[in-house]
Design a protein that fits this description.
InterPro entries: PRTase-like, PRTase_dom, Pur/Pyrimidine_PRTase, Xanthine_PRibTrfase. By secondary structure, the protein is an alpha/beta fold. It has one domain (2-188): Rossmann fold (3-Layer(aba) Sandwich), CATH 3.40.50.2020. The chain has 5 helices and 10 strands, in the order αββαβαββββαβαββ. Strand 5 and strand 6 form a beta hairpin. The radius of gyration is 16 Å and the shape is globular. Bound molecules: guanosine-5'-monophosphate. Guanosine-5'-monophosphate (5GP) is lined by residues 19-22, 27, 60, 96, 99-100, 124-133, 156, 161.
């Protein structure tokens, strides 16, 4: 998606040799107009697939997931990283190693909101090693729901997550695919 690539070129910052910082529009400060456009693009790609629920993980996936849910007219469920005391009902849970935080996190959703009748679209901000997406896929599988696909704003194609998910037969749609970080900046696939 050209609008997104342009924004990444203009405002993205490289940290080390494999982290892209997009705090000015996606991960900290949010650009609602851009998020709406991202939501519209995901909705355009997945509209024919009968999605009944968007699933994401807190916190960075929520904003874009809400835009997709708004466009498709379906609820948005975000997995929680710690089971809060208010979530007393039974949950589906999965483990993921956080790439940016370098720690193991557990994600969970209430069984009440993810059911075998659901056709689920997973949305997240980044796809890198694929741990977060795989944990969400596991929640969908535990619920016996159907997985329509995975939509990510940015896929770092030089990391294995996208390839592994596609090899597992999962449809992965990325709005920007980064092939490499070079001295000149971000190189898109
Ligand atoms: P994965 O589980 O695929 O390795 O990483 C997915 C999660 O790590 C994303 O939800 C995102 O929060 C974070 N992440 C991975 N790579 C990057 C990156 O280059 N920049 C930012 N801002 N977050 C990243």
């Amino acid at each position: 998606m050209e609008l997104l690539k342009q924004r990444i070129r203009e405002d993205g910052l490289l940290i080390g040799n494999n982290i892209l910082k997009v705090d000015s529009f996606l991960n900290h400060q949010l650009d609602p107009q851009l998020l709406l456009e991202l939501g519209r693009e995901f909705a355009r790609r997945f509209r024919p697939d009968g999605v009944t629920k968007i699933l994401t993980v807190e916190a960075s996936g929520i904003a874009v997931a809400v835009m997709v849910g708004l466009e498709l007219g379906v609820p948005v469920l975000f997995a929680k990283k710690k089971q809060p005391s208010t979530l007393v009902e039974e949950v589906y849970a999965a483990e993921a190693f956080s790439f940016t935080k370098q720690e193991q996190v557990s994600v969970c959703v209430s069984r009440r909101y993810l059911t075998a009748e659901d056709r689920v679209l997973i949305i997240d901000d980044f796809l890198a090693q694929g741990a977060a997406a795989k944990a969400l896929v596991s929640l969908v599988e535990q619920a016996g729901a159907s997985l329509v696909g995975v939509g990510v704003v940015v896929e770092k194609a030089f990391q294995p997550g996208g390839k592994e998910l596609r090899e597992a037969g999962i449809r992965v749609e990325a709005l920007a695919r980064i092939g490499a970080f070079t001295e000149k900046g971000v190189e898109f696939v």
